[in-house]
Backbone:
C-alpha cells in the first residue's frame, strides 16, 4: 500500500524498504514533536529542509547538554552527612536538656538539601524548555529514566540531580557499557538500590564482625537483580535466582567512601567486603578478583544480544509506539550489535528508520513532556519549581520520584486516564490564563504543530470565544497531547 | 465553599501516601436480587509485602532464628492461634479476626516464580498463568463475564492500574478542582476527541467521575478539615502564583512527620471508598493500591508504618460501610513474599509465599486459609522462601464464585485463563 503511494511521486526518494515517508512539512513537525520536546516557535521551520538531518546533527560524542548549576554528588553527600551528624547531636542534646530534637540549624540543613533538589529539577526543566537540540535532551531523559534513581530518602533525593549530570548525560552517545558502569558505580544508584551496604558473607569484613561477636553484614541482591532485569538483558533472558545471587556476590565491595576514607562520598571499592572466589553468572565463569569481577560481568551483559533486544524494544516504545513495528526494533537491535553497543549509532538508526516517521501520532505525552511542551510552545520556561512541581505531582509524575526502579511508565494507557485528562485541562486553562492574552492562537497552533495541525482543531481554535479558550483548546487537542 | 474545600484537603493528604483507589461496579449486579448488594474490594500491596511480618508465625520453632532482628516478638504479636499472630500495627484487623470477620492465608502466591516485581504484579493483576499471557485485568474481565455492565470508576492518583484495564472502561480520580461538564471547553473538547479511541472515552469518564466524587464526599460528610494551601497539588488555575507550593521532596517529609495524620488520612480514604460503595448504583467492585512494601533494608520501621496505613484503610472501609459490611468481602494481597531469612541490611529480599488477608462481614469463621508448610529448612521453597501451598487465583476464584456468583466455567477460562488446576477455595462465605 505504501509502495503504491510512493510510486505516485516520481523521482522522490521517499521510500525505504517498502515504507513510504511523509512530506517534508509533516516530517519537520514530527521531528520537533515526536523526537523532540514539542516545537518552539521557528523550530519546525528550521527542520523543514532536512528533518532527519536536523535530528542527526544533534547527536554528538560529548553527550547531552548539562543543566545549569548544582553541586556535585560528593558535595551533596557531605552535606547529607553533616545533616545526619547534627541531627544526632541535637537528639543527644534533647535527651540531656529536653529541647527540640530538630533545632533550627538542623531544619535549615534539611531544607537546603530539599531546595537544592528542587533547583536541580528546575534547571533540567528549563534546559528542556529552551534547548534547540530537543532530540538530544529527550535521548538523555530516556536514559535517565532507564537508570532510574528515585528520591526514596533525603540522601538519594540530594544526589538524583547530580547522578543525571555525572553518570548519565556524559555517556548517552557513547558505549552502553560505559553508561552501565557509570550508573552502577555512582553513589546515587548504590544508595537507591542498597548496594552500598551489601557485604560478602565470607568476606574479611564479615569474618571480623563475627569474631568481634557482632552481627555480620550480609548480601543485598537488589541492584544486581535490577541490573539484570531492568538495565541489561531483561526478565526474559533466561537467568535464574542463582544468577542474581552470584552477580550480587560479585558486586559486593561496590560502596561509597566514608568521611575518613581516601575518596569521601565517592565510589569506593571495599576489597574487604568483597566475597572471595570465582562466580558464575548466566553460564559464564568469572575468576577475576576485586572489582574487576563485577565489571567483567557488566561488560558481558552489555554485549549480550538480549540486552540489544531489550534496549531496542524500549527505545522503539519510547519514541514511536507502545506496540512498535518489529522492523524498527530489528533495525535498532542490529545497530547496537554491529557497533559494539554504541548509542550514537543506535540514535542514528532511529532517526534513519522509516518506521519511526509514521504519520499517526501513537504516543501520548507523559506529564513532564506535556508540561515542557506547553512552555516551549510559547517560547517560555518555568520561572520556579513552585510552578512546576505541584503540576507534575498532580498529574502523577512527581519530580525525581518514579514509583519503582523500573522508572516512569511509557504507555498511553497509563497516562491517558480519565482523571489525568481533567487535570491536564485544569492546567491548560491556568496556563492559558497567564499567557494567552498576548498571543495569536491561530499562529501559535501553526508554530506548535505545523503540518500535524488538523482542520477540526484549527477551526476550533479560530472560532474560540476568547484567546484563553483558544489556547486551552490547542493545548488539550489530540495533536498536542499526542506526539 | 466549605464542602468542596474539605474534600480537597482530605484527599490531598491521602494522595501523599502513595495510595491509589480504583472502582469498578456495574448495574449487572443490580439485576439479580440477593447478589445486588454484594461487594468486593481488592487491596494490592505493591512491592512484595512480607507475610512473615504481617502474620508472624511466632509459634513456629524456626521463626525467631531465621528472622533475627526483623522477627516480631511473641509477646508483641496479636494472637490468632497457637502458631500465628498479627503484627501489632494491625489492631483493627485483629479486632475483626476475633469476631470471625478476618482470616489469613499465610502461604499464598501467584503462579509466577521469577521474583520480579513487575512480572509478578502483572501476573497478579492480569490473572494469567504466566507473564505476558494477557493484557487486561481480571477484575475488568469479571465484570465482562457478569454481563453487559456500566462501570463507575475512580482512582486517587492519576494513573490506571492494570487490574482494572480492559474492555470495560474504568475511571480514575484524584484531588483537584472539579470541572463543570456543561461548560463550553469540555463540550468543545469532547467534540475534538470523537475520533480518538483513547482520549474520547477517558475524558467522558473523567467528567462523569467528577460528579460522582461530589456525591461520595457528600455521603461521607466529613467534619470540615482545615485547608492548608501549601500542600495543594493542583490548584484552580494550575499555576496560581499566590500558592506557596513546596519543593518536590517537602511533601514526603510532611507525610513522615505526620504519621498519625497519615493514619487518619488512610482511615478517611477507606471511609471515602465506602462512601462511593454505599451509594445506590455505586461501584460494587473496587481496587486499592498501597505502595512501599519493598523492604530490602531497615524493614522493621517501614513495615510498622505501612501496616499501620493498611490497618487504617481497612478500618475506614469497615466503619464507612456500616450495615453494608455484611455484604462485603475484602482481600489484601501482594505480588510475592520475601525471603524467610533476614538479609545483611536489616531487611529481606524478594521471595515467594506471603500472606493474604481476607476480611468481611460475610466471612465464615475458621482458621488459616490453606496449609502452613512450616519454616523448617527442608520445607522452604528453594531453601529461601515460604513455600506456597495455595494459588492466589484459587482464593480469588473462591470469592468470585461463592460471594459474587460468578460461573465456574467463566472463572476457569476467562477471568483466570487456563486456571482449571487452581481450584476455588470453598467455604469462605
Residues:
Amino acid at each position: 500500500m505504501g509502495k503504491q503511494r510512493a510510486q505516485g511521486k516520481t523521482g522522490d526518494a521517499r521510500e525505504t524498504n517498502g515504507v513510504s515517508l511523509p512530506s517534508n512539512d509533516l516530517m519537520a513537525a514530527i521531528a520537533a514533536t515526536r523526537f523532540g520536546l514539542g516545537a518552539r516557535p521557528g523550530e519546525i521551520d528550521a527542520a523543514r529542509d532536512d528533518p532527519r538531518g536536523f535530528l542527526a546533527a544533534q547527536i554528538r560524542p560529548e553527550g547531552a547538554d548539562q543543566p545549569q548549576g548544582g553541586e556535585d554528588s560528593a558535595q551533596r553527600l557531605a552535606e547529607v552527612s553533616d545533616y545526619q551528624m547534627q541531627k544526632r547531636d541535637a537528639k543527644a542534646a534533647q535527651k540531656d536538656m529536653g529541647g527540640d530534637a530538630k533545632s533550627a540549624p538542623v531544619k535549615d540543613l534539611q531544607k537546603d538539601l530539599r531546595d537544592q533538589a528542587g533547583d536541580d529539577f528546575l534547571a533540567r526543566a528549563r534546559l528542556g524548555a529552551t534547548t534547540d537540540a530537543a532530540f538530544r535532551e529527550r535521548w538523555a531523559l530516556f536514559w535517565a529514566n532507564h537508570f532510574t534513581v528515585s528520591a526514596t530518602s533525603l540522601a538519594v533525593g540530594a544526589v538524583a540531580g547530580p547522578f543525571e549530570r555525572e553518570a548519565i548525560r556524559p555517556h548517552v552517545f557513547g558505549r552502553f557499557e560505559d553508561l552501565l558502569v557509570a550508573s552502577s558505580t555512582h553513589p546515587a544508584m548504590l544508595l537507591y538500590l542498597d548496594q552500598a551496604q551489601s557485604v560478602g558473607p565470607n568476606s574479611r569484613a564479615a569474618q571480623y564482625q563475627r569474631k568481634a561477636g557482632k552481627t555480620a553484614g550480609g548480601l543485598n541482591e537488589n541492584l544486581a537483580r535490577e541490573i539484570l532485569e531492568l538495565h541489561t538483558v531483561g526478565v526474559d533472558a533466561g537467568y535464574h535466582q542463582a544468577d542474581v545471587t552470584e552477580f550480587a556476590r560479585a558486586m559486593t565491595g561496590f560502596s561509597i567512601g566514608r568521611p575518613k576514607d581516601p575518596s569521601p562520598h565517592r565510589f569506593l571499592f571495599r576489597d574487604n567486603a568483597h566475597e572471595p572466589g570465582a562466580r558464575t553468572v548466566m553460564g559464564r565463569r568469572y575468576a577475576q578478583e576485586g572489582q574487576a569481577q563485577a565489571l567483567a560481568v557488566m561488560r558481558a551483559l552489555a554485549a549480550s544480544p538480549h540486552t540489544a533486544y531489550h534496549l531496542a524494544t524500549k527505545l522503539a516504545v519510547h519514541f514511536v509506539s507502545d506496540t512498535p513495528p518489529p522492523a524498527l526494533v530489528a533495525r535498532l537491535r542490529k545497530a547496537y550489535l554491529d557497533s559494539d553497543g554504541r548509542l550514537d549509532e543506535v540514535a542514528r538508526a532511529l532517526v534513519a528508520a522509516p518506521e519511526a516517521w509514521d504519520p499517526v501520532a501513537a504516543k501520548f505525552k507523559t506529564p513532564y513532556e506535556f508540561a515542557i511542551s506547553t512552555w516551549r510552545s510559547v517560547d517560555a520556561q518555568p520561572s520556579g519549581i513552585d510552578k512546576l512541581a505541584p503540576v507534575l505531582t498532580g498529574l502523577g509524575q512527581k519530580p525525581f520520584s518514579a514509583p519503582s526502579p523500573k522508572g516512569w511508565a511509557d504507555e498511553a494507557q497509563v497516562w491517558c486516564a480519565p482523571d489525568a485528562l481533567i487535570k491536564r485541562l485544569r492546567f491548560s486553562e491556568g496556563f492559558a490564563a497567564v499567557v494567552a492574552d498576548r498571543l495569536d492562537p491561530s499562529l501559535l497552533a501553526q508554530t506548535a504543530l505545523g503540518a500535524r495541525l488538523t482542520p477540526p482543531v484549527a477551526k476550533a481554535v479560530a472560532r474560540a470565544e476568547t484567546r484563553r479558550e483558544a489556547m486551552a483548546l490547542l493545548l488539550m487537542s489530540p495533536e498536542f497531547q499526542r506526539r | 465553599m466549605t464542602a468542596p474545600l474539605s474534600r480537597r484537603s482530605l484527599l490531598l493528604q491521602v494522595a501523599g501516601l502513595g495510595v491509589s483507589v480504583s472502582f469498578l461496579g456495574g448495574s449487572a449486579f443490580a439485576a439479580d436480587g440477593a447478589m445486588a448488594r454484594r461487594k468486593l474490594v481488592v487491596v494490592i500491596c505493591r512491592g512484595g509485602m512480607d507475610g512473615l511480618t504481617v502474620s508472624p508465625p511466632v509459634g513456629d520453632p524456626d521463626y525467631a532464628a531465621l528472622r533475627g532482628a526483623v522477627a516480631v516478638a511473641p509477646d508483641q504479636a496479636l494472637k490468632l492461634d497457637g502458631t500465628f499472630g498479627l503484627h501489632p500495627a494491625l489492631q483493627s484487623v485483629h479486632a475483626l479476626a476475633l469476631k470471625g470477620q478476618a482470616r489469613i492465608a499465610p502461604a499464598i502466591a501467584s503462579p509466577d516464580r521469577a521474583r520480579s516485581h513487575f512480572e509478578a504484579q502483572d501476573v497478579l493483576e492480569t490473572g494469567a498463568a504466566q507473564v505476558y499471557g494477557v493484557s487486561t485485568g481480571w477484575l475488568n474481565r469479571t465484570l465482562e463475564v457478569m454481563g453487559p455492565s456500566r462501570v463507575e470508576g475512580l482512582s486517587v492518583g492519576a494513573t490506571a492500574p492494570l487490574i482494572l484495564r480492559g474492555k470495560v472502561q474504568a475511571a480514575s480520580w484524584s484531588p483537584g478542582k472539579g470541572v463543570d461538564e456543561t461548560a463550553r471547553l469540555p463540550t468543545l473538547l469532547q467534540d475534538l476527541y470523537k475520533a480518538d479511541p483513547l482520549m474520547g472515552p477517558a475524558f467522558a469518564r473523567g467528567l462523569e467521575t467528577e460528579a460522582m466524587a461530589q456525591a461520595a464526599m457528600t455521603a461521607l460528610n466529613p467534619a470540615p478539615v482545615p485547608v492548608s494551601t501549601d500542600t495543594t497539588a493542583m490548584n484552580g488555575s494550575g499555576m496560581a502564583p499566590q500558592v506557596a507550593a513546596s519543593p518536590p521532596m517537602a511533601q514526603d517529609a510532611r507525610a513522615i512527620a505526620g504519621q498519625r495524620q497519615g493514619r487518619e488520612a488512610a482511615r478517611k480514604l477507606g471511609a471515602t471508598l465506602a462512601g462511593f460503595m454505599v451509594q445506590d448504583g455505586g461501584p460494587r467492585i473496587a481496587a486499592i493500591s498501597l505502595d512501599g512494601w519493598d523492604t530490602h533494608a531497615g524493614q522493621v520501621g517501614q513495615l510498622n508504618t505501612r501496616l499501620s496505613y493498611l490497618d487504617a484503610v481497612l478500618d475506614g472501609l469497615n466503619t464507612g460501610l456500616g450495615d453494608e459490611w455484611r455484604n462485603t468481602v475484602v482481600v489484601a494481597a501482594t505480588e510475592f513474599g520475601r525471603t524467610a531469612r533476614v538479609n545483611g541490611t536489616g531487611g529481606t529480599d524478594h521471595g515467594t509465599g506471603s500472606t493474604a488477608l481476607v476480611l468481611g462481614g460475610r466471612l465464615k469463621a475458621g482458621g488459616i486459609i490453606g496449609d502452613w508448610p512450616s519454616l523448617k529448612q527442608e520445607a522452604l521453597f528453594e531453601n529461601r522462601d515460604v513455600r506456597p501451598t495455595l494459588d492466589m487465583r484459587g482464593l480469588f476464584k473462591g470469592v468470585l464464585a461463592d460471594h459474587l456468583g460468578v460461573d465456574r466455567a467463566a472463572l476457569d477460562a476467562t477471568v483466570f485463563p487456563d486456571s482449571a488446576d487452581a481450584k476455588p477455595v470453598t467455604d469462605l462465605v
Q: What stands out?
A: Chain A has a mean pLDDT of 92. Chain A has three domains: 73-192, 195-303, 364-483. Chain A touches chain B through 81 residues (CB under 8 Å).
